[in-house]
Amino acid sequence: MTNSMNNIEFVNDLVKGTVEVVKSEVIDKFQVSFEIKKNEVHLLLTKLKSAGWIQLSYLSAIDWLEENKFELIYILMNWEKPVYIQVRTKIDRENPVMDSILPIFGGAKYYEREAHEFFGIAFPGNPDYEKQLILEGWDDIPPLRKDFDPKAYSDKKFPQRDYPQDYSVKDPKESKQAKREARKQRAESLRGGKKQ
Amino acid sequence: MKSTKFTPASKLSKAEIDRKWWEVGDFFRRNSLWMLMYCTGCCAIELPPAMTSAYDMERLGMGPMATPRQADILLVSGYLSLKTLRRLIYTYEQMSEPRYVVALGSCPINGGIYHDSHAVINKLDQYIPVDVYVAGCMPNTESVMNGFVDLMDQIKRKTAVGWKKYHENNAWYKENQKTSLGEVVVHDEFHE
Ligand code: SF4
């Protein structure tokens, strides 16, 4: 009999027996997160895959601008023991390189291309991580980096709509409001309703 | 012997006859409109109530159409990213003429809530001519229907001339498309 708390303990033992954990957190009873060193990611992912976490649910990155780091997050799912494992690791922001996990999880191919396109992280080992995936003809720094200013880019690249400064009616004779009022009063008086 | 064939009494010039035929054509055109729904954004959710029994746009003689070559209206519902715009221009140029463009929501007007996004264009009429804008984020179904009635009215009054503008100012439109998109050719792994 397994229950979710046992599962979390099992994961804890498994991970802590394999690699050195910098920080770990139990998010809820179905999800745990471990922060580990960059060079141990492949070891841990291999170990977890053989222990049943066969599905790479997601791979993404976070830009920690003040720390000058990128954080990579690999989320794994096991269909036997329902626990999501987040494997997190911080990499250098100036020269972001992370070896591809393609030999372990083939599905990482597109996630890595996406991370390269939106954060500029290089994934040697993935043959086409540099191919464009979502953006077309991109001509600036990767758009999800925190130091990219989308507003400035949009102003520079796309024409904005200009609106006339004064759109209110200046001439009282042309006021639609007054005309509408007059029409309403006339309608009222024709119906024999309100007496003026 | 008198011919049983109808012979018009007055002598109309060729231009006048052409105009008459165009008017007759417009009558039928505005009473059978087929829409190509290019549903890019959240505004598209207003279309199911417009098409089903709540508002039943078929009573106006309008219906959905699957292919650009058979459609009269290009219905752009919502925001357009550069990637989508490229495909939209392809689609627009495939449609037969006369063709009309109806844009729903504030996103095609001025970018809407995505006005500062790195990917979303801010002004649709820079790239293709738009005949009717329906404002709102999202516009309610009454205003969507009202937009279609306006379009029919414009066809009747011969002011829905976006497709002619696209011919006359083609260089300008092409230039705008080029400055934002680079070139209107799809280069990705599925098109190479
Ligand atoms: S106008 Fe509003 S509802 Fe319509 S696509 Fe834009 S954000 Fe969505």
UniProtKB/TrEMBL annotation, chain A:
Molecular function via GO: NADH dehydrogenase (ubiquinone) activity
Domain of life: Bacteria
Domain spans labelled NADH:ubiquinone oxidoreductase 30kDa subunit: 35-153
Pfam family, one: Complex1_30kDa
Matching Gene3D superfamilies: NADH:ubiquinone oxidoreductase, 30kDa subunit (3.30.460.80)
Family assignment from sequence similarity: Belongs to the complex I 30 kDa subunit family.
Name under which the protein is recorded: NADH dehydrogenase
Record organism: Mariniplasma anaerobium
Automatic annotation (TrEMBL), chain B:
Molecular functions per Gene Ontology: 4 iron, 4 sulfur cluster binding; metal ion binding; NADH dehydrogenase (ubiquinone) activity; quinone binding
One annotated GO biological process: aerobic respiration
Pfam family, one: Oxidored_q6
Domain of life the protein comes from: Bacteria
Gene Ontology CC terms: respiratory chain complex I
Domain NADH:ubiquinone oxidoreductase-like 20kDa subunit, chain residue ranges per copy: 39-150
Gene3D superfamilies tied to this protein: 3.40.50.12280
Keywords, in A-Z order: 4Fe-4S, Iron, Iron-sulfur, Metal-binding, NAD, Quinone
Family from the record: Belongs to the complex I 20 kDa subunit family.
Protein name: NADH dehydrogenase subunit B
